[in-house]
Amino acid sequence: MRIGIDLGGMTIKAGLVTEDGKILHKDAVPTEAQRHYTEILADMAKLAIKVCEDAGYRMDEITSVGIGSPGSCDAKNGVLVYANNINFHNVPVRTEIQKYINKPVYLENDANVAAYAEYRLGGKEMECFIAVTLGTGVGGGIIMNGKIFSGHNGAGGELGHMVIKKDGKPCSCGRKGCWEAYASATALIAQTKNAILDHKESVMNDIIGGDIDKVDGKTAFDAAKQGDEAAIEVVKKYTEYVGVGIANLINIFQPEKIVIGGGISNQGNYLLNLIKEYCTFEVYSGAKIGGIDIEIAQLGNDAGIIGAALLNE
Amino acid sequence: MRIGIDLGGMTIKAGLVTEDGKILHKDAVPTEAQRHYTEILADMAKLAIKVCEDAGYRMDEITSVGIGSPGSCDAKNGVLVYANNINFHNVPVRTEIQKYINKPVYLENDANVAAYAEYRLGGKEMECFIAVTLGTGVGGGIIMNGKIFSGHNGAGGELGHMVIKKDGKPCSCGRKGCWEAYASATALIAQTKNAILDHKESVMNDIIGGDIDKVDGKTAFDAAKQGDEAAIEVVKKYTEYVGVGIANLINIFQPEKIVIGGGISNQGNYLLNLIKEYCTFEVYSGAKIGGIDIEIAQLGNDAGIIGAALLNE
Q1: Contact A163 B244 (CB under 8 A)
Q2: Most CB within 10 Å of its CB: which of A10, A208, A309, B152?
Q3: Range A232-245 average pLDDT
Q4: Per-residue pLDDT tens for A73-120?
Q5: Nearest CA-CA distance, residue B106 and chain A, Å
Q6: Chain-centre distance of CA B224, in angstroms?
Q7: Where are the alpha helices (DSSP H) in A211-267?
Q8: Does the domain spanning B2-116+302-310 belong to CATH 3.40.50.300?
Q9: CB nearest to B153's CB, from A164, A285, A287
Q10: For chain B, what are the domain ranges?
């Protein structure tokens, strides 16, 4: 039995997870991210212990504790090097957690951890597997030969910060034209709002009851499925933005599989088919997209807990 | 002792190479690429045998024959899946060569082979090493844990066909806005010609003696070093195009080292410093470019022969 902890900017989630990646019990507490790291990490350890006890297990039945965290992690030393949304700099996460729980503690970036969960539960060994998350930002995780790949400093796999449009839209990272600035849910919402302002007659306007602040990542998809032309155009352009990055990743990695997660992935096959159609014409000649599985991620919000729990040496 | 063969669209080169990557003797014959593959492969085998004999070695002193080829290779089966400039489709290269030389025959994409040579002669083990070639196109090779990484179908590592400017300049691959369409020597030459047409007063015009067909990959660099403003602008923009792709690769891979080869890399530190300067502001926050070595490739045109010779299981 293992414990997985998903540290987020708003919420700390922890779960008791079986060796084959099933969550038996989970719980959550607020992060209150403005606090000192020792307090946050103490709450993480306490939540882990509580989850174990509430499920009727003893701590000596626990093999390891894994943590998925935002930012750049030094996995080897269990140190969170840098995360901007929880203001951690060179925080010795492993050492702190081990003050409360005397077990092996593993730490990895949250997008990498989610990718690892999707890979492990896919149940098939692959040389290269990539997970892309279309959420507030665009996250990425690369699994090479069954191991998380994050480069020499743990900061690799930042797929969302690949520029796809040089001198394009400013990105939160400081670059201009990042994939994230076009393919995140945040970007889709902005694209949807612009289209509504330009097309007052659009069904999108009815869906949001005329309140522009009610636009979300579903608005354009819902209206497009009703045949609304302005919405169809938003969805077409958005999926091209997603697709151009996916095609880049294919030309670079030719992975066995790419899974797409995050809020936008709730659009399922509707989204997937548009992306595949676009990529078919964007993948380097001579190679074929046919050999690559592009799928929707399966684990949703639980991927963080499950992937963290499954972390090992 | 090993033999390395570099199959090009114009020339077949072969070399006798020591176990530690030194070329003892090399020779070349024209490819005459319009011929049937059996003829071309027969010439490759004959050249390999000749190189060995001319250097005073017997074939039974040869451990293996390695081949670097354009296009997508199925390295496992020794099959050239597809190459557009020599019109090979599913050619059984290993089997054909072994009709003449009864040795292990290894086959890999030429950009991957060149990257492998640079990696091996770097003499240091790394988790991730990337070579980028700024030539007629933009080539790429990824070495992971000492092995060539080329994806599930051998077609990976096509770094030049990463879109950096969606809906931008058409690329030979069919996409629009590929890195290659902006950062290749071919692209630089087009950028230089445009600047000369716009700036008749430029030193670049003197360098080419007013003959626009004499523009090459050095023209803008030579004039920029003389302080010519139009040329400085060309070089600045070109190195930004190179840099945006390098920064993408850093955000994705965080490799230990990136080497830059190809004709443009003859500009050495002048080029390197401009690229580094640009990348410093383009790399994902929290990570630092300081930990990554960005260097000029060392082996020049010999990388193909050396890398091919060093190929192994």
Answers
A1: yes
A2: A309
A3: 98
A4: 999 999 998 887 788 899 999 999 999 999 999 999 999 999 999 999
A5: 20
A6: 25
A7: 219-225, 229-253
A8: no
A9: A287
A10: 2-116+302-310
Of A152, A241, A286, which has the smallest distance from its Cβ to B155's Cβ? A286
Nearest CA in chain A to B252: A157
Q: Which residues of A touch B282 (CB under 8 A)?
A: 163, 174-175
* Residue keyed to tokens 């993408």: B248
Partner B contacted by A83 (CB < 8 A): yes
Q: A155 is written with which tokens? A: 């900061």
**CATH H superfamily, domain A2-116+303-310:** ATPase, nucleotide binding domain (3.30.420.40)
Spans of chain B, pLDDT less than 50: none
pLDDT of residue A296: 97
B54, B37 contact by CB (below 8 A): no
- Chain B residue whose CA is closest to A153: B254
Under an 8 A CB cutoff, do A155 and B84 touch? no
Cβ of B57 under 8 Å from any chain A Cβ? no
Which amino acid, A107? Answer: L
Q: Does B85 touch chain A (CB under 8 A)?
A: no
Tell me the whole-structure pTM to 2 decimals. 0.94
Contact A281/B at CB under 8 A: yes
Distance CA B122, CA A104 (A): 36
Under an 8 A CB cutoff, do A286 and B254 touch? Answer: no
Give the model's pLDDT for residue B289. 55
d(CA A52, CA A2): 9
Q: Is A284 in Cβ contact with B161 (below 8 Å)?
A: yes
Taking the CA atoms of B189, B193, B199 and B201 in sequence, report the sign of the dihedral they define.
positive
10 Å CB burial of residue B30 (0-12, 13-18, 19+) is exposed
Nearest beta carbon to residue A152 from set B128, B152, B157: B128
CB of B15 within 8 A of CB of B26?
yes
Q: Please tell me the predicted confidence (pLDDT) of residue A288.
A: 56
Longest dimension (CA), chain B: 63
Alpha-carbon gap, residue B154 to A291, rounded angstroms: 12
What pLDDT is recorded for position A45? Answer: 98
The reply to whether A107 touches chain B by the CB within 8 Å rule is no
Task: Quote the ipTM score.
Answer: 0.93
State the first-to-last Cα distance of chain B, in angstroms, to the nearest integer. 16
In angstroms, the separation between the Cα of residue A125 and the nearest Cα of chain B is 12
